[in-house]
Amino acid sequence: MIKAKKSLGQNFLVDKRIINKIVNTIELKNKNILEIGPGTGNLTEGILKKNPKKILVVEKDDNLTNLLREKFKDKVEVINQDILMIDENLLSDQTLTVFGNLPYNISTEILCKWILNIKEKIWFDCLILMFQKEVADRIISDFNTKNYGRLTILANWRLHVKKICDLSPLSFQPKPKIDSTVLFFKPKKEFFTFKNAKNLEKITRIFFMHRRKMIKKPYKQLFNNNTYIASKIGIDLNSRPQNLDFEKYFQLTKEYEDLRS
């Protein structure tokens, strides 16, 4: 019997009702699928029933990799690697539909990496990902709320996001101590373009470093106290980071890049 490893943040999804809800989110017939963190393969089984063209799964755990290869044979291609070490743009020459019960300790790191590494040809058509509910609430929050932050801005820059469902700890084995949420992401056709997407990550990181304080100090750090830019964009420097909407952060990033070009 395979035992979940706390060090890898393993909690195996066992709730068949939830598995059915997840795999019925979109049509999967003849699609190329990527699943991250398949665990013992319960969600994988649900995906297989939908007759996809191909399934790739990425599993870091050696024991689980052996289990999955034995269980699914040639129906599934198992990649025994850490997803953070993989260049997702090279996984397939076909566009992938992505599922993931992401390890909660690295879920935000995975999502941010994928967003910041999006190329002109996007490697996925949608992402159906599970997060700790607290993280999901940050991703889908509105500005002027306590959950609004860097993750909200980065996710909503390139992706449309909607909630699929919440899950209780009873849906997993072993049971985590927190609730979970499944989110659906689809690439935006129109979005702000930057010379380097990591500049948006830098701007938001510096602004939200002290989220309870006014933005005067981080603004001064980034723009050498050039108040013209704030005036041009329509920013009150007495505001707090959560008071600026997505558009303001996108405009700030543009101005930051223009100053350095």
Structure in words:
- The protein folds into 2 domains: 6-187, Vaccinia Virus protein VP39 (Rossmann fold, 3-Layer(aba) Sandwich); 198-259, Helicase, Ruva Protein, domain 3, CATH 1.10.8.100.
- Helices cover 35% and strands 19% of the residues.
- The protein has 10 helices and 9 strands.
- It has a 7-stranded mixed sheet with strand order 4-3-2-5-6-9-7, with helices on both faces. It has a two-stranded antiparallel ribbon with strand order 1-8.
- α4 packs across α6 (150-158) and α7 (198-207) crosses α10.
- Mean pLDDT is 93; it is low at 4-9.
CATH class of the largest domain: Alpha Beta
CATH superfamily of the largest domain: Vaccinia Virus protein VP39
Assign the CATH topology of the largest domain: Rossmann fold
**Helix proportion:** 25-40%
Strand order of the largest sheet: 4-3-2-5-6-9-7
CATH architecture of the largest domain: 3-Layer(aba) Sandwich
The figure for the number of domains is 2
The number of helical segments is 10
N-end to C-end Cα span: 58 Å
Number of strands: 9
Provide the descriptors you would attach to this structure in a database record.
two-stranded antiparallel ribbon; Helicase, Ruva Protein, domain 3; alpha/beta; elongated; 2 domains; 19% strand; Rossmann fold; 35% helix; 10 helices; 7-stranded mixed sheet; 261 residues
